[in-house]
Specification:
The chain is of the alpha+beta class. Helices cover 17% and strands 51% of the residues.
């Protein structure tokens, strides 16, 4: 009788533990610890435009069925095809219902790339479209054909504080994308040099998530600096881009 009582007690304990395990699994599922849904960005830019015409460029940001109203940053980068080094970055205004937009007039004929840089909820995405302004240009067409053979170049996006003070330690984050996908597994360094000076400070980065690289830097003096982002990988990639940073006292 005593053995039967012990057996029944152990059986009840096993059943209780099994039920607790099922509840824990259920709680984990309900608490949303699974992978977050990706950001979806619908970039709206006209395929053609007249020279000097004011354009509305917009990005509609969603996550699942939800419009994203709390994006950390939405920027539009615009450059003439083949001239990425002279791109222009414009901050978007939040219109509501997940829509972020800018107004922009392009004053020269040519084919232009419009790329939106969207950072929200610890995620980042950088879709892009082409806009042909006026008659376009043969140079752009030739570049498009060459571009098709060599694939997409690496897209860079540098995130930094809105204001930077001398001697203040700050975080610099860059997002890399190639072929419309985050570029992970790269070796990324920041080269920082002050205008008029030859010496440079080199900052190593850590890949904090796929395609996102972070490093810390200190600008010792006020002035204008050039931050060059260098990216390399084992597949022969070696690309860079430059950003200008202003540091105050």
């Amino acid at each position: 009788m005593k053995k039967l009582s012990i057996f029944l007690s152990m059986l009840c304990l096993a059943l209780v533990l099994a039920a607790c395990g099922q509840n824990d699994n259920k709680d984990t599922e309900e608490s949303g610890t699974s992978e977050p849904q990706p950001l979806e960005v619908s970039l709206d830019a006209p395929e053609t435009a007249k020279k000097g015409e004011e354009l509305t460029l917009s990005a509609t940001v969603t996550q699942g069925d939800e419009a994203v109203e709390d994006a950390n940053e939405v920027m539009f980068e615009i450059w003439k095809e083949g001239d990425k080094d002279n791109s222009e970055m414009v901050k978007a205004e939040h219109e509501g219902e997940g829509v972020y937009s800018i107004k922009k007039a392009i004053e020269e004929d040519g084919t232009y790339i419009v790329q939106s840089h969207v950072t929200a909820r610890d995620l980042h995405t950088m879709p892009k479209n082409k806009v042909t302004v006026g008659s376009g240009s043969e140079e752009s067409s030739e570049h498009s054909e060459e571009h098709a053979h060599h694939g997409d170049a690496v897209s860079f996006h540098l995130m930094k504080p809105e204001s930077i003070k001398a001697s203040e330690k700050i975080s610099l984050v860059t997002h890399l994308q190639k072929d419309d996908q985050p570029l992970g597994g790269a070796s990324v360094r920041f080269e920082i040099s002050k205008a008029g000076e030859e010496k440079a400070q080199w900052i190593d980065t850590e890949e904090t998530k796929d395609g996102e690289y972070e490093g810390t830097a200190t600008f010792e003096e006020a002035g204008k600096y050039t931050v060059t982002i260098h990216a390399e990988n084992d597949n022969g990639l070696h690309e860079h881009t430059e950003e200008t940073v202003t540091v105050t006292e």
